[in-house]
Amino acid sequence: MNPWLFGFRDFEPGDEGRREALCTLGNGYFATRGAAPESRADGAHYPGTYVASCYNRLTTTVAGHEVENESLVNMPNWLLLTFRIDDGPWFDLAQVEVLHHDQELDLERGILVRRLRFRDRQARTTRVVQRRFVHMSRPHLAGLETTLVAEDWSGTITFRSGIDGRVTNCGVARYRDLEGHHLVDHQTFEVAPNITVLHARTSQSHIRVAEAARFRAFAGGELVDVDQSLDRQDDLIAHDLALAVAQQAEVRVEKIVSLHTSLDRASTEPVAEAVNEVRDAAGFDELARSHSLAWARLHHRFHYGLSMSDGAQEAVHLHLFHLLQTISPNTADLDAGVPARGLHGEAYRGHVFWDELFVLPTLNLRMPQLARALLTYRYRRLPQARKAAHDAGFSGAMFPWQSGSNGREESQHLHLNPRSGNWLPDHTHLQRHIGIAIAYNAWHYYQASGDEEFLSDFGAEMILEIARFFSSLTHYDRSRDRYTIRGVVGPDEYHTAYPGRDRPGIDNNAYTNVMTAWLCRTAVHVLRELPDQRRGELIDDLEIRHAEIDRWKRISQRMFVPFHGNGIISQFDGYDRLAELDWDAYRQRYGDIQRLDRILEAENDDPNRYQASKQADVLMLFYLLSAEELEDILGKLGYPMPPETIPRNIEYYQQRTSHGSTLSAVVHAWVLARSRRHQAMEFFDRVLASDLHDTQHGTTSEGIHLAAMAGSIDLLQRCFAGIEVRDGELHLNPLWPTELGPLELSIHYQGQPVTIKVTGRTATIRTTPGKKRLPITCTCGSRTVCLGPGETARFSLERPTGGADPTTFAP
Ligand code: BGC
């Protein structure tokens, strides 16, 4: 088994959606699902093309309410390619005897291959091979090549190659009551005998999109003229290309497509750009070569020398592949965030949540410029976040839980429970902790990259404004002599209100409160870190007074954190007083209870009544903060938390979590890694299986779970290999599962390439030689070494005392 090849055999209509999502090809600018080129949205297939950040808003009346939703738009389908023999019907997989069908995704080169052999009703046998790419270094270009062999017949083969603008957003069943016609004003043109173009506009955001397609036909390897005709409608344009084919002869049609929008930079207008690019583009083979070269460079940068089992390697390669197809070097120049479901489907309407918290750690140490670009997506929306805070009666910046085009809150007000058919009020927008994730990401990007300019120009302002918002969200509770936060929702979305209370939100979500203490102390730290001049400017511009800084300091010392018995952090005030759920009974009755919220609502019950969590909430604290950091934060708050209470907390919440989000397994693998290795590996396997085996039963077809995919890579890098950046130092704490074989990787730390090899509890670190390189400080266990350019250090934590044993020497 080659762990760089991933694929499917046969055709299974019921599984086609998952396969299409997993075979999506993309380059960070746009992505196209792995749908069969001859298909339309028909219940089994769902061709979808999505351009990063191309959103549009539409209004629908549901359950008597007018709701406006913003969605990532499904763009015209450039794949359209089908064929027919003589005057027979257009090819339809369901109408022929399929002798062979497989799809193979080459994760190394970024090429999807489909092989098909069939016998039609006239008993003619035909072989077809299709290859496609979405070009990694020419972000507007894609290619589809179809090679056909007439095995036992001769006649005329007619290919139909076109662009289909009759698409809507209807890929997610539970959104189908919502309006999905985003494209209007379709126009089509034939601009040259072999070049067509389709232009359309999004109805509300007025983004213009143009797709131009060029075909070339070959027989016996030679470019040939074809007998061609044009089918030109307003929203579809296609060339029919007829060629004579002899028995056992091979004919080939290549289609090169260029996609441009009015959001592009360095562009006059999309039609001209698409047509010019496609006219000048090289042929399929040459483009496939340059595309594979771009992938080779990316793989080099994200190299993981892994020798784990083939299955696990394949999953890791697949995850890395989809991460880099969603966020690639092409993203660096875009105004794009991290869409939770990739550019692979329409779940969550392409919105951006807190999921970048699971994506940035990998990018920070591999391609920091991408992490920076994603953070500037947030910075550009700072004015909108300030307005949201102001309109809600707060100060600073309140970032939206779901973000899209301009940073307005895009969370839905109503959502459908597909189990009960009920439309329900949705209060998940009260997840104010999104702001903390943004501040955390900005601070950690700065730590890993040493990018002082970023901190000065963007990062500090965001962190300060977010701290200011959280400070205004806190109330001083005199009776407790503590700061409290009321009426929010934590990462666990099952609890959005107290049973019987008419206003939404819960009080003192421990995750939000502890992280607010972290945020306030970080804001003070950031001010200290800035150069004098910039600090002065920001203090003036944001009108930060001493009293405000004093309040941040007090919050970081007097924030309230709820606990109940035996050192257990309460997920929120009153969590321990909620009823216990009979987990075994529910598992017996329903089997899969990941979406316990839907089950309970359909039973006329309410998840708010139970000590039952969708995903890690309290445990997020152990995920984001090291044990020392957490102990320090809680200690300063006056809540001593001895290390032995951590496993008790993990166990308590593990027993009460349904893992209704794929993020939950990432966090659980992490928090168990150092105490219960076996369970941690089970959760790790679960993360690897999330999309590969569609563990949420049907959600993968609606788009991949990008944070879980990126989270698995992060687990390897930061958790198992133990490579972390803290307090301006590189920390190594290897606990690498020996069953995975040694790991060798190359990271970028504070602008320098560094190679690290890890196995078990030992690590070797090597810096790159070079006159301009600065020494780096690296800590492992209780020992710290300073490494000059081209130096190597070996560490071992294997001794029972846990002390490091570094040896440093020049090469
Ligand atoms: C999770 C959120 C996540 C969102 C998008 C939800 O199911 O509960 O934490 O941000 O999916 O991935």
From TrEMBL:
<dbReference type="GO" id="GO:0016757">
    <property type="term" value="F:glycosyltransferase activity"/>
</dbReference>
<protein>
    <submittedName>
        <fullName>Glycoside hydrolase family 65 protein</fullName>
    </submittedName>
</protein>
<dbReference type="InterPro" id="IPR012341">
    <property type="entry name" value="6hp_glycosidase-like_sf"/>
</dbReference>
<comment type="similarity">
    <text>Belongs to the glycosyl hydrolase 65 family.</text>
</comment>
<dbReference type="InterPro" id="IPR037018">
    <property type="entry name" value="GH65_N"/>
</dbReference>
<feature type="domain" description="Glycoside hydrolase family 65 central catalytic">
    <location>
        <begin position="318"/>
        <end position="713"/>
    </location>
</feature>
<dbReference type="InterPro" id="IPR008928">
    <property type="entry name" value="6-hairpin_glycosidase_sf"/>
</dbReference>
<keyword id="KW-0808">Transferase</keyword>
<feature type="binding site">
    <location>
        <begin position="614"/>
        <end position="615"/>
    </location>
    <ligand>
        <name>substrate</name>
    </ligand>
</feature>
<dbReference type="Pfam" id="PF03632">
    <property type="entry name" value="Glyco_hydro_65m"/>
</dbReference>
<keyword id="KW-0328">Glycosyltransferase</keyword>
<dbReference type="GO" id="GO:0030246">
    <property type="term" value="F:carbohydrate binding"/>
</dbReference>
<feature type="domain" description="Glycoside hydrolase family 65 N-terminal">
    <location>
        <begin position="10"/>
        <end position="262"/>
    </location>
</feature>
<dbReference type="Pfam" id="PF03636">
    <property type="entry name" value="Glyco_hydro_65N"/>
</dbReference>
<dbReference type="GO" id="GO:0005975">
    <property type="term" value="P:carbohydrate metabolic process"/>
</dbReference>
<dbReference type="InterPro" id="IPR005194">
    <property type="entry name" value="Glyco_hydro_65_C"/>
</dbReference>
<keyword id="KW-0326">Glycosidase</keyword>
<feature type="binding site">
    <location>
        <begin position="354"/>
        <end position="355"/>
    </location>
    <ligand>
        <name>substrate</name>
    </ligand>
</feature>
<dbReference type="Pfam" id="PF03633">
    <property type="entry name" value="Glyco_hydro_65C"/>
</dbReference>
<dbReference type="InterPro" id="IPR005196">
    <property type="entry name" value="Glyco_hydro_65_N"/>
</dbReference>
<dbReference type="InterPro" id="IPR005195">
    <property type="entry name" value="Glyco_hydro_65_M"/>
</dbReference>
<keyword id="KW-0378">Hydrolase</keyword>
<dbReference type="InterPro" id="IPR017045">
    <property type="entry name" value="Malt_Pase/Glycosyl_Hdrlase"/>
</dbReference>
<dbReference type="InterPro" id="IPR011013">
    <property type="entry name" value="Gal_mutarotase_sf_dom"/>
</dbReference>
<dbReference type="GO" id="GO:0004553">
    <property type="term" value="F:hydrolase activity, hydrolyzing O-glycosyl compounds"/>
</dbReference>
<feature type="active site" description="Proton donor">
    <location>
        <position position="493"/>
    </location>
</feature>
<feature type="domain" description="Glycoside hydrolase family 65 C-terminal">
    <location>
        <begin position="724"/>
        <end position="778"/>
    </location>
</feature>
